[in-house]
Amino acid sequence: MRLTRYIFGVLVLLALPVVSTCAQSATDCASLMKFGIYDRYRTFTTETQYKQIREFFSNFQFSTQQQAQNKAAELGLDITGVLGLTFNGTTSSSNFQQWQQSLVRSSYQEALSFGLQVQSIEKISNALTDLVGRCLTQKGVHAYIIPAADNQTFSVTIDFVPYSSERPLTHGLLTMTPSSVAASCAPAGVLNQRVEIGPQGVSLSCRRSPTETVAVNVNTDDGSPAINYDAYIVPPPNINFRLASESIQSGQSTTLNWEVANASRVEIEGYGPVSVSGSLTITPTQTRQYRLIVTSLDGQQTSTYKTVTVLPPPPVLTGARVFFHTTNDDKDGDTNVSVYVIYGGETKK
Fold this sequence. Notes:
Blueprint: E1 9-13, H1 26-32, E2 37-38, H2 46-60, H3 65-75, H4 80-83, H5 96-105, H6 108-113, H7 118-135, E3 140-147, E4 153-161, E5 170-177, H8 179-182, E6 194-197, E7 202-207, E8 214-220, E9 226-229, E10 238-243, E11 247-249, E12 254-261, E13 263-268, E14 272-273, E15 277-282, E16 288-296, E17 301-311, E18 321-328, E19 335-343, E20 346-348
Parallel strand pairs: 11-17
Antiparallel strand pairs: 1-2, 1-3, 3-4, 4-7, 5-6, 5-8, 8-9, 10-12, 12-15, 13-14, 13-16, 16-17, 18-19, 19-20
Helix pairs in contact: 2-5, 2-7
C-alpha cells in the first residue's frame, strides 16, 4: 500500500448539451463525475481506488457483461481482472446483474481475497482519473473542492469554460453550509453574492472540523452544480514495528522493520525521518531501546518501542592447564581417567 497524504479533489461537473472536447462523450463524463472525487495529485489509497472502480460500475448501470466490456474498451480501461471476480459462486458471465450488485457492496479486502491484484486496481483507477481530467476541459461550469492534507483546510473553486469568445463569463451565486464554515472562508465578499465566473475561476480558502459535512451550491446562468464534502473521521495510524531478532550476541547485527499507514510523518529516534515502510540494519554494542515516532494525519504523535538485548560474548579459551587423574578400580580391573581444564578462572571437568 502506498504512503498516504490525503489531498483529494472533490468535484461535481455540470454536463451540458454541447459537443465534448475530450475523447469521451458528455454523457460518459456525467457518469464518470458522479464519483465526486478527482484524484488530481494521485494521493488515493488503494482502498479508495477500489471504491472508484465500484462507483464506475454503479454509475454507468451496465445491464450485461458485454455492455461493461464495450464501454471499458471505448474508454481505454482494462477491467478483465474485475470481471474475473466471483462472489458467492456468482460470476459476471453467469448472472451479471447479481454479480454487479455484489461488486458494488464488496470491500477492498474482499476483492483482494477473491484474487484481484493491487496492480490492476491502481491501473484502472489511474486511467479513470485521467478520463476525469479530460472531462474538465468540457465547456460549462465546473465546481470542485480540494482538501488539504489535514482534511480541515480546503479550497473551493468554481470556473467556467466559455462556449465562445463572445461570452467568456457567466454569473452565479455561491452558498455554503454550515454557516460556521462559511464564516471561515477567505476572501470575504464571495459567498452569498452574485459574482462573475470565468476561465480563471473563483476560489475560496476555508476551514472546517473533520466531523463537519460541508455543502456548496453554485447557481449560475449556465447551470447549478452542487458539492457535498462529507465529514472525514481521521483514521488512527496502523503501525507494524518489529525486530528480526530481539536478542543478539555482542558484535552481531539485527534488522528493524516497519510498515505504517495513515500517517503524515514517520521517524526513528536517533535516525530522523524515514519512509512509511522500510528496514534498518543495526549493530548495537549494548542492550538498547529503539523508538518509532509516528505522526497521525491530524498531527498527534504515537511512539512504539522495540528493545534489542545484547548478550555478553561466550568465554574464549585463550590458555589452559590440563590435569589427568587416574584411578584403578580393583573390582572390575578398569582404569578411570578424569581430565580437568582450567581457563577463565574456572575449572571444568
